Structures are given as C-alpha cells and as structure tokens.
Amino acid sequence: MLVETQPSLTPDQFNRIAKIVHDDSGIVLTEAKRGLLMARLNRRLRVLGLAEYGAYCTLLDGPDGSEERRKMLSAVTTNVTAFFREAHHFESLASQVLPPLIETARKGGRVRLWSAACSSGEEAYSIAMTVLEAFPDVARYDLLILATDIDPLMVEKAETGIYSEASLQGLDPTRLRTHFSPSGNSYEIRASLRNIMRFAELNLHQDWPFAAKFDVIFCRNVVIYFDGNARRLLWQRFSNQLHPGGHLFIGHSERLDGSASAMFRLAGPTHYIATTPESAR
C-alpha cells in the first residue's frame, strides 16, 4: 500500500511565508504554528499541482502571486464564530447604544455600524437582529450595517445567508422563527435583515475605502493574532473612524493598550466609547 508523502516546509520557507502573511495581514505565525500552517497549505499545493514549498514560495513572490496570497490568507485565517457570541455585547447594544442612534435616524440622521471581521456572518446578522428588534421600521431610515472580512470565501458565505441547523443551536426559537426561513435542511436569513446589510472583502491591515465615520464598530477576537505594532495601529485607526462617542466592541481576551487608553473610555466588559481629544485629558 502506497502512502502519500506530504511536502515538507523548511525553516527558510516557513519564515518566507510567515513574513508574507504578516506583511499582508498583520497576523503573526510563530514556529509553534508550523504544523497548522502545513496542514492548511498542503491543500493549496495539491490544488495547484505543486510538489514542494519552494515552488509555492516562488509563486507567492512572482508577478502573479497576488491572487494566491489572497487564497493563502483565506487558508490560514481562523474562523470561529457563533450567533450572539459574547451575548453581553448585544445586550449593551440594545440597551445602551441603539436608543440614541434610533433617535438620530428618526430625525433624518445617518447611522452606520460595522462588523469589521464578520467571518461567515453570524456576528453581523446578530447585530442586525438586535437592530431590527429595537427598530422594527428601520428600513425606512438611513441605517446600515457593513460586514467585512479578509477572507473572500467567508464574505461569500455570509452574503449567502444560509446556515445549517447545527450552527443555529442555542439561538432563541423566537428569533429563529422571526429572522430565518427554512431552506431544505438549512435556514436562510430573511430579507428584513438582508435589506440593512452590506458585505465586502476588506483587509484591516490595508487601506480602508471609507469617506464617512461609524457609530459602532465590532472587531472581536482578531487582534489576538496581531503583533503589538499592528494591534496599536488598528486601535488608532478605529478611533479615527468612529464619531466621538462612538462605540467599539472587542473580544473577551483583548484589551486596548498603548495610546488607545487616551482614545477610548471603558463602558462595559470589552466595550469602549471613543473620546474627543478634550475629554481624554
């Protein structure tokens, strides 16, 4: 019986790939992640018909490497999510954050919320459900939720809005009936949620195509993969992208650090409010 030999990744090749991943995304791959990296990238080598990592590194560095870099980032990023994960954030969104924003929208103002690392969409749709439950006639007003992710496959899945029964376990039955329609063995997000959503591929480590600011940003369990410089730069960029008084929600194991302590004030567990320069003094 023949046993398929898997390509091996030399230290130099690992370092080259880790540098590309870091340069393109801010994600840090330590030596401890070598086995995980190989497990995920061996699939890419099989798809490409490459026998070894030297050829793969040449492809990544070549003139046609940009598309493969995107696919490589899709392969190495971790997508762990669930509906209403870290439920206290959505409770704060409903009770503290949304009431004044709803008033702003009813008066003709513009309201924008951003799920900045939406993965397969569960976080973004949880935000949308919370909004719709608090603001049933939201479709009549200028309120939108932007959902972005670095992984184009995840963005595509999120935009499709179809979820297995297993992924919906634990969701309140009333919410399931209200916001989803049965679709074969799965469930599909209803149009009432889709109508206030916009999806796009976006790399947080690169330029952002935003002219206007946001009222709320969710970016949870992302910066744990970044080094200190990339993390602190992201906090700064979020501060710049939020209206004064805007809200930032981050992951349960994350904390604002560096100069970010002067840009935000704590409002609740891993929930921060953007300060004005005057109020930060």
How would you describe this structure in keywords?
281 residues; Chemotaxis Receptor Methyltransferase Cher, domain 1; single chain; 2 domains; 10 strands; 19% strand; Rossmann fold
Structure, briefly:
The chain has 281 residues and is an alpha/beta fold. The protein has 11 helices and 10 strands.
Your description of this structure?
With 281 residues, the chain is α/β, with parallel strands linked by helices. The chain has 2 domains: 11-76, Chemotaxis receptor methyltransferase CheR, N-terminal domain (Chemotaxis Receptor Methyltransferase Cher, domain 1, Orthogonal Bundle), CATH 1.10.155; 87-280, 3-Layer(aba) Sandwich (Rossmann fold), CATH 3.40.50.150. 43% of the residues lie in helices and 19% in strands. It contains 11 helices and 10 strands. The protein has helices at 11-25, 34-48, 53-61, 65-76, 87-106, 122-134, 152-160, 173-179, 191-194, 228-241, 277-280; strands at residues 111-115, 143-149, 162-164, 180-183, 186-189, 197-201, 214-219, 242-250, 264-268, 271-274. Strands 6-2-1-7-8-10-9 form a 7-stranded mixed sheet. β7, α10 and β8 form a beta-alpha-beta unit. α1 (11-25) packs parallel to α3 (53-61) and α5 (87-106) packs across α6 (122-134). The protein starts with 10 loop residues before the first helix and ends with a helix. The model has no long low-confidence stretch (mean pLDDT 91).
